[in-house]
Write a structure and sequence with these properties.
The chain has about 450 residues and is an alpha/beta fold. The protein has 15 helices and 17 strands. The strands form 4 sheets. A 7-stranded mixed β-sheet has the order 4-12-11-10-7-5-6, sandwiched between helices. It has a 4-stranded mixed β-sheet with strand order 1-2-3-15. Strand 13 and strand 14 form a beta hairpin. Helix 14 crosses helix 15.
């Protein structure tokens, strides 16, 4: 008798369920919803000009700096993997606030923590200790050391966002470089299709002309190379203080770093005494089914600095840079700071998020849902061979590569009650809450199938 592992059994069962859903032989919804599915009709039309949503937007949009193009929805609340707008429409959220609400919208435990801590102490500045920043840093180090991830993790700097975490990493790398190699050791290598943030240092590490050109000149000292291309090693020399890389490029199209490439970066950094900085702001904190995305890499390919944010606070602003002891020793009092970073409210929320997400059972469930997504997305690729060219990703971060713009499909999905976003060039990005259920995965895949069909 052949005995299959639980993950293999789920994959076989999931593939069967996916095929039933995507090829029209199974519906688990109510009668009226089933009829809508059969006809592939719009169930969530955008608000009319006379709606509460449109009235709200007309009243308030003139006071917003116009940095976003967005549909006329006005969300009022959410629960779990669903969002609700002021018109009463319900949307399955495959965006999670751009990979942020790992524990879902309006998590009861986080709501209780926010109330209790806000009633006790929200802020006192980093001129003094508080009860939660230290425990958060300790927990991050301990849980990381318990994984196959960054075994040199020693200390943590807590900030307010992902871009601030990367700014800290950039400053730490430059200080380290000057400490070990003198004033000329300040160059930082990053990669095309990466995204590290919008502030000037992080933006300078993000080689995208659309983002950089309006704000040029960039901060000097940044070099760029092609991701997953071994020729990038030629750009790392004695003047390089750091290599900044995402193990999985999120905004760039869900591009996964190869074992060979990431290991080669580690070895070359060691040769020239440069730091290897992993930006896991989007792909870390359980998103891949591991606490850190780089755990799936060879154990020798580990970073000196690890940046995080997004799921760290489940929507409450917080970011952090975790560093090895050799990096920490280069940083002296006064070298960096933050007014709000590490405040007790954000730190207590993050402590809870890390405690939950780092549990083996939680991460195991992410891996199981990943198999369901993989089976479903590969089925869509087979069903639409002239449109879907590649499926990339792992865990609960997926990219559906199309042969044309995904904008029409994103809109069609929204009009049918599913929220997805884009990335890179012609890529649909799927990053749902990590607590998503099997039924919700299948529901979303079914709607995505309908959305694709409606645009052909």
């Amino acid at each position: 008798m052949i005995i299959y592992s639980p993950s293999v059994r789920l994959l076989v069962r999931s593939s069967y369920r996916v095929c039933r859903v995507l090829y029209g032989r199974h519906y688990s919804t109510a009668t009226d919803a089933a009829e809508a599915v059969h006809q592939n009709v719009i169930t969530n039309p955008d608000p009319s000009q006379s709606s509460k949503s449109s009235e709200f937007v007309r009243e308030h949009e003139p006071y917003n700096v116009a940095t976003y193009a967005r549909p006329g929805l006005v969300f009022s609340h959410g629960k779990g993997c669903y969002l609700f707008d002021v018109e009463g429409s319900k949307y399955l959220d495959f965006t999670a606030g751009i990979a942020v609400v790992a524990l879902g919208h309006s998590d009861d435990a986080i709501a209780k923590i926010l109330y209790e801590q806000a009633s006790k102490l929200m802020h006192c500045s980093n001129l003094y200790y508080n009860e939660w920043t230290g425990p958060l840093c300790k927990l991050l180090i301990e849980r990381t050391l318990a994984t196959r991830g960054m075994q040199s993790a020693a200390r943590v700097f807590v900030a307010n966002s992902g871009t601030e975490a990367n700014e800290a990493a950039i400053k730490f790398a430059r200080k380290y470089g000057k400490t070990v190699g003198g004033d000329n050791k300040y160059e930082i290598l990053s990669f095309y299709s990466s995204f590290h943030g919008r502030t000037m240092g992080a933006l300078s590490a993000t080689p995208n002309e659309k983002y950089q050109k309006p704000f040029a000149p960039m901060v000097p000292g940044f070099k760029y190379a092609k991701f997953n291309d071994m020729a990038a090693l030629d750009s790392i020399d004695k003047n390089t203080c750091a290599v900044l890389v995402e193990p999985i490029q999120g905004e760039g199209g869900v591009n996964v770093g190869t074992d060979e490439f990431m290991l080669a970066l580690r070895k070359k950094c060691d040769q020239v005494d440069a730091l290897l900085v992993f930006d896991e702001i989007q792909c870390g904190m359980g998103r891949t089914g591991y606490l850190w995305a780089h755990e799936s890499l060879p154990v020798e390919a580990q970073p000196d600095v690890l940046t995080m944010a997004k799921s760290l606070g489940n929507g409450f602003p917080i970011g952090a840079a975790m560093v090895s002891e050799k990096v920490a020793q280069a940083i002296k009092i006064g070298d960096h700071g933050t007014t709000f970073g590490g405040n007790p409210l954000a730190s207590r929320v993050a402590h809870h998020c890390v405690s939950v997400i780092s549990q083996p059972e939680f991460l195991g469930n992410v891996k199981l849902k990943a198999e369901l997504f993989k089976a479903g997305l590969e089925t869509l690729k087979e069903k639409y061979p002239g449109l879907v060219s590649e499926i990339r990703g792992t865990g609960l971060i997926w990219g559906v590569q199309l042969n044309k713009s995904p904008d029409a499909i994103v809109e069609a999905a929204r009009l049918r009650g599913l929220l997805v976003i884009t990335a890179g060039v012609n890529t649909i990005r799927i990053v749902p809450p990590l607590v998503i259920s099997e039924d919700e995965v299948l529901e979303g895949l079914r709607i995505l199938d309908l959305a694709i069909a409606s645009t052909l």
